[in-house]
Amino acid sequence: MEKCKIETDRLIIRPLVTEDYETWYQGFDGRKVAQHAFDDGQLDMSVCDLKWFQQLVARHQELWEKDDTYIFAVFDKNGQHLGMLNIATLARTNMQWGELGYFIHNQYWRKGFAYEALSALVETCWKVLGFHHLETQISPRNRASQQLAEKLGFVYECRRSKFAFEDGEWGDKVIYSKTLHEQPLD
């Protein structure tokens, strides 16, 4: 997992380790009240003690080792936890297909962190994780995430009706996708 430490001008992107507990906690605990329907806002952090966090880190490592989901924390160069990114494996074999997900804590919005972090992760998806094709599944009402996907070079592919069960009902998702590389893996 250490080989997947990514650095940009302002960010460090890597899997969580137990020593991240304090800064991880502060990132979540410092969230502002929800800004819109796609923002979880402030969360109840009372169950998130060190033991709980150690189990979270172990679960992330287990998912990584199974080639199920690759979960990355986003930190600024001062060590502040800004959010999380993930790539879920949808299919390997002849497809090398993954799903991209992300969130940035709302106190760090509008500073370009999501774009910077995701740009770096998309490059790593091909070179290190071996994904050929990525997609992102976005609520049709979440125009900001759709615009971010487009800025990252993802292309609108389709609308999947009643695709995801959220908030007690089946909802649609719009799918944006990106082919990462035309050449086969070495």
UniProtKB/TrEMBL annotation:
SUPFAM superfamilies per the UniProt record, alphabetical? Acyl-CoA N-acyltransferases (Nat)
Q: Where is the N-acetyltransferase domain?
A: 11-181
Fetch the InterPro entries from UniProt: Acyl_CoA_acyltransferase (IPR016181), GNAT_dom (IPR000182), N-acetyltransferase (IPR051531)
The record's listing under PROSITE patterns reads: GNAT
Highest taxon listed in the record's lineage: Bacteria
Its name, as the record gives it, is Acetyltransferase, GNAT family
